[in-house]
Design a protein that fits this description.
Layout lengths: L5 H15 E2 L1 H6 L4 H8 L3 E3 L2 E5 H8 L2 H16 L12
Length: 92
């Protein structure tokens, strides 16, 4: 009988879920805002115990010129306010 490590099983389930879905936290880590989520993606789907979006749908939206334009503005705003990880606020 094979030995199953519960932590390994949870890790595999976690990885499998994240390969198919992305949560609000995941979107925000990619610089999305609540408004951008509602404009570009709309309502999430039931993805097990939480609501999320299909990763393939998010990637499709992120590849559009409209989103790329929005993201460039978002990154510029974050950089100007010293909130973009790895970048410093420009000095006067």
């Amino acid at each position: 009988m094979p030995y199953y490590n519960a932590a390994d099983m949870r890790a595999r389930a976690h990885d499998a879920w994240h390969s198919e879905w992305i949560s609000t936290r995941g979107l925000k880590a990619r610089f999305w805002t609540d408004k951008a989520i509602s404009v570009f993606l709309g309502r999430p789907q039931k993805a097990g115990p939480i609501m999320a979006w299909k990763r393939k749908d998010v990637q499709k939206v992120e590849s559009t010129p409209e989103f790329q334009n929005w993201l460039a503005k978002r990154r510029a705003w974050l950089a100007a306010h010293g909130k973009l990880p790895g970048e410093q606020k420009p000095s006067a």
